[in-house]
Fold this sequence. Notes:
This protein is mainly alpha-helical. The protein has helices at 22-26, 34-37, 43-50, 66-79, 95-109, 122-132, 148-161, 171-183, 193-196, 203-206, 208-214; strands spanning 90-92, 119-121. A two-stranded parallel sheet has the order 1-2. Strand 1, helix 5 and strand 2 (119-121) form a beta-alpha-beta unit. Mean pLDDT is 79; it is low at 1-35 and 213-217.
Amino acid sequence: MSADSYPLASGPAEAAPPQPRISDLARPRGAPAASGYLEGLNPEQRRAVETLDGPVLVLAGAGTGKTRVLTTRLAHILATGRARPWELLAVTFTNKAAREMRERIGHLIGPEAEGLRWLGTFHSVAAQILRRHCELVGLKSSFTILDTDDQERLLKQLIEAEGIDPKRWSARHLAGLIDHWKNRGWTPDKLPPVEGESFANGRGGRSTAFTRSGCGR
């Protein structure tokens, strides 16, 4: 046998390692050590972070670390494998708070934070749910959400089309009524007659264009 030749290994060949399961791949990988993301928490904060069974209520003033507790708790749930990123729901009131939470969690657990599809404001999360299940309320997934200015502009056009005096019966007034009707759960076909009489001597309530543009859709 020459010096540069190599003998074949004798005996049975080693078995190939088993392929990972999809469920294993979905679990967070490379999560930081517990001593990393829990460092700096006081005893009360750490207790809130590590309590994973049942509800947790945190009462604290401004600047006392509530957001840190919440983001660290989410990171802890992911790091311990209690849930996958897309199984967590975290809602806030403002886009700024939602961005801050996502950035903080990303700093703690890395790229796994990108899978937090249900982290956002009440409106953004609700819009996602509505687009997924739009057929249940008679909508298409391509529906458009109108902001306040768009709503008033549309209502002005409807008021003009109905020949109603816009100086006496403003679009803002009608928008407020429609918001009230929506909060009461009144769709156009369920609007009480007395409510419809409150705008333009009943013309607002009788107008399908009015009610379906704001109350029904």
